[in-house]
Write a structure and sequence with these properties.
The chain contains 3 helices and no strands. It has 101 residues and is an all-alpha fold. It has one domain.
Length: 101
């Protein structure tokens, strides 16, 4: 395995790492919201990591033929992380609207 193949594998794994980090941050936020209510900055980082994963997926699109499973997993985890952010944000505004009347 030469250096180019190693670099390609690392580049293809970056969206997967960002997507998994985003999902883990969602779990921390949900756990924290019910227990400690102190780490609200975690929720601000989740869309940034999801969008970074989506951008890296788009940037490494040419490498998807060689590493298709890893690339698709990275894209899906980034999309799930971003959709999780949108769902939590929507539910927050929905319940806030119901609470205000």
């Amino acid at each position: 395995m030469n250096n180019n193949e190693k670099i390609e594998k690392i580049l293809v794994c970056i969206p997967l790492v960002f997507g998994v980090v985003s999902i883990i941050l969602h779990g921390i936020y949900i756990w924290d919201a019910y227990h400690l209510r102190s780490i609200t900055g975690v929720f601000c980082i989740t869309p940034i990591t999801s969008i970074a994963g989506l951008l890296f997926s788009w940037a490494t699109g040419k490498l998807r033929n060689d590493h298709k499973a890893i690339w698709i997993a990275g894209l899906l985890t980034s999309i799930i992380g971003f959709l999780g952010f949108l769902v939590i944000e929507f539910l927050t505004w929905f319940y806030l609207g119901l609470a205000l009347g």
